[in-house]
Write a structure and sequence with these properties.
elongated; single chain; mainly beta; about 35% strand; 3 domains; six-stranded antiparallel sheet
C-alpha cells in the first residue's frame, strides 16, 4: 500500500527572484548553438590561434534570444563565422579574434521560482526552525513541474493521519502562489490539501538540487546504532548515584518511527549542555538509548532510555 502524507505548514518564503521570465535582446548573454548545445561566449579573446583543420562549421543564422538551432548566434548578424571544437568547448572567430564558448548550464540562473530546504524535518503546524531559500532555473522548474503534472492520483488530506509525518521543504513556482511541500521519507508531494506519492527517481531530482546547494537529504533517515538494554539495567539500578527511575516528562505514548522522532522525544528529558547526540536501538527489548554529551570531553553525559512508544524508562547521568 502506498504511504501518503499531508501537511499545511505556516511558512511563507520571501521571493527574491532574478528576472528570467521575459527578456529583451540585451538580457541574453552572447551565445552560439552547436550540435544541439548552447555555448556562452567569453568576454575576452583567446590568446592562441585555432588551426583551420579544427573548424567544424560556420554560423548560419541570427536570433535576438537564445539560439535554438545549430550555427545560430545572438551576438553577430553577419553570418559565416567559423567555429571549431577546442578543449573546454567551442571557439568562434568574431571580429578577427577567436573566443572560447563554454556550454550553458541549464540549471543555472533563476526565473523558475524558489525551492526551500528546512534545516530540520518539520511537522504540520510547526514553523521550520530555519530554512534555506534558493532560486531555481527555468529548466529546473520545468523538470519539477513535470514531476507534479505526471502524478496519476491525488488524495485529499482528510484521509490520512496528518500528524504522523514530516516535510523537508517546499517549492514555489514563479507566478504560482501555491506551495508544493515535499517529504524525502515517503517520496511525497503535497499542496492545496492534496497529496500523492511520486516515484523515488522523481524525488531524487529534488534531492539532487538539495545536494548541489549543499543541503543535507538524510536528516531523519539516518540509522541508529545498537545496544543492550538488559546490560544497562543490570549495570544501573534504581537508587544508584546518577540513576533516575521515576519522575519523567515522557509518560505518554508518542508517534515514533524514525531517528528524528526519537531525538525530539528524548530532548524533553535532557538537562545538560551538549553538542553531540547519539541514538541506539535494542531490537529485542524494543528500547531506545539517546545519549547527550560534549565532543572531546570526558564525563558530563546523559543517557535517556525510552520504550518503542517514547515513554521514558530510565535516565543515567555520567561524570
Amino acid at each position: 500500500m502506498k504511504r501518503y502524507i499531508a501537511l499545511l505548514l505556516a511558512v511563507v518564503c520571501v521571493l527574491a527572484l532574478a528576472g528570467c521570465g521575459s527578456h529583451t535582446e540585451k538580457d541574453y548573454p552572447a551565445a552560439i548553438m552547436v550540435e544541439g548545445t548552447v555555448y556562452l561566449k567569453s568576454a575576452a579573446a583567446m590568446p592562441a590561434e585555432i588551426d583551420e583543420s579544427a573548424i567544424i562549421g560556420y554560423t548560419t543564422s541570427y536570433t535576438d534570444t537564445y539560439p535554438d538551432k545549430d550555427g545560430e548566434t545572438n551576438f553577430n548578424r553577419e553570418l559565416n563565422m567559423p567555429y571549431a571544437r577546442v578543449e573546454g568547448g567551442i571557439a568562434v572567430l568574431y571580429e578577427n579574434e577567436w573566443y572560447l564558448c563554454t556550454a550553458k548550464d541549464e540549471n543555472a540562473g533563476a526565473g523558475g521560482g524558489t525551492i526551500s530546504f528546512y534545516s530540520e524535518p518539520t511537522r504540520e503546524g510547526t514553523d521550520p526552525v530555519d530554512y534555506h531559500c534558493s532560486s531555481i532555473s527555468m529548466k529546473q522548474a520545468e523538470d519539477l513541474r513535470k514531476i507534479i503534472d505526471d502524478v496519476d492520483t491525488w488524495v485529499n488530506d482528510a484521509l490520512v493521519d496528518r500528524l504522523a509525518y514530516y516535510f523537508d521543504g517546499h517549492i514555489e513556482f514563479a507566478g504560482d502562489k501555491k506551495l508544493y511541500y515535499f517529504s524525502y521519507e515517503y517520496n511525497v508531494i503535497y499542496f492545496s490539501q492534496q497529496f500523492a506519492e511520486i516515484p523515488a527517481e522523481d524525488m531524487q531530482v529534488i534531492k539532487d538540487i538539495a545536494i548541489a546547494k549543499g543541503m543535507p537529504v538524510d536528516l531523519h533517515l539516518e540509522q541508529p546504532g545498537s545496544f543492550s538494554y538488559a546490560e544497562v539495567t543490570a549495570t544501573f539500578k534504581a537508587g544508584d548515584p546518577g540513576v533516575k527511575s521515576e519522575g519523567f516528562v515522557n509518560t505518554e505514548s508518542a508517534p515514533i518511527s524514525r531517528i528524528w522522532d526519537v531525538k525530539t522525544q528524548a530532548l524533553n528529558e535532557c538537562t545538560i549542555e551538549h553538542d553531540t547526540v547519539t541514538v541506539n536501538y535494542d531490537e529485542t527489548a524494543k528500547a531506545w538509548e539517546v545519549t547527550y554529551s560534549t565532543a572531546n570531553t570526558l564525563g558530563n553525559c546523559q543517557s535517556v532510555y525510552m520504550d518503542e512508544n517514547g515513554v521514558t524508562l530510565l535516565i543515567v547521568y555520567g561524570e
